[in-house]
Fold this protein.
Amino acid sequence: MAKVKVVTLGCKANQYDSEQLKKEFQNKGWEIVSGDQVPNIFLVNSCTVTNEAARQSRQRLRKMSKEGKTPFLVLYGCYPQAYPQQTEKIPGVDLVIGRQDFDKTVELIESASGIKPLRKKADQDLFYSNRTRAFLKIEEGCESFCAYCIVPRARGRVWSKPVDEIMEEIEALITSGFKEVVLTGIHLGFYGRDRRGNLSLEKVIERILETPLPRLRLSSLEINEVSEELLDLMEGENALCPHLHLPLQSGSDKILEIMNRKYKARDFLAKTNYFKSRIPDLGLTTDVMVGFPGETEEDFDKTVEVVKEVGFGRIHVFSYSKRAGTPAARMNQQITGPEKKKRNQFLRAIGEEQQAMFNSKYLGREMEVLVEGTEPAQGWSSNYIKYYFEEDLEQGELIKVRGEKLFQDGIWGKEV
């Protein structure tokens, strides 16, 4: 049987795309393999948001090529879409496919490789193997053009998935046994702006909340995209998780302006305080960039101040990565690698302290947790706290848990 292995790098949208590609392969008769199984086709769904992400894409392909495990290597996705000339020169790669050819990917691979299944299989239900949490991409593209970001070039203009298609996928996921769906997109808050009529993210959420889906979670929104209507839904609907991922990027107004971000630090603080006043158990997570060109010690200190004042549950800290084709790559005052590393480590330590402070509020409290992993058993609360358990629990269970003590990056809990 023709076998294909898909490796995914990068964001939740990439994970969703990979699952769709797997489903298309399966529907054409391919066997999806993982682990040490040897495929006929090895496909890397690439990321290019940082230099490190691009390096990892090349590394995975080189490793497979050196091991000689597969006759046909495919590089797909954002990396070749943004840098076609660069990716066409990667040694050992047999086929490069940009995101514009997503709908033709399997067909292009079969044609170029000469490998096809002996027979086509009937439609199969393949989204995620553990039947716990699924990502559903409802929006494609970004038109924000942040100074550091190559994503608009890699992903293109905004496109919103029709509501009827979204509901079909939601119903299929519910039927398949998923307990949580995460709505995701390249810029989720832009959903609906490319379509006429009264179409918005909030309207889609309302439709989904009419279904028996136990949990609906949002991926990432900009601070200015959290509407009163969305807060009303989060406040009044148990199925909508009280969790917002709001990228801060910097706490310096000077740096935010150069980045082409559309808010000021004081606005971010005022709004997050308001959100927490509306929804007391709200979990706030964020992305923060350190080492953007021209970021002084004073600018960095302002970021630290904002982070401390907000009190995030989790912080993803990453260092600025120079991407050719972006305005920031042409800026002066590039920060040295050692200085970026120092700031990164400092802010990560603060993030760990804040995470422990936020988690400690839930010691002794009962929370509902979706079990998603084993060894040890672990899962997530609706407001995005990670729980660990000694008990042997089944993946996909929604259970009541009491937190007993802080443990690693979460809470050690016990089923009640």
Remarks:
- Confidence is low (pLDDT under 50) at residues 121-129.
- The longest strand covers residues 398-407.
- The chain is about 35% helix and 25% strand.
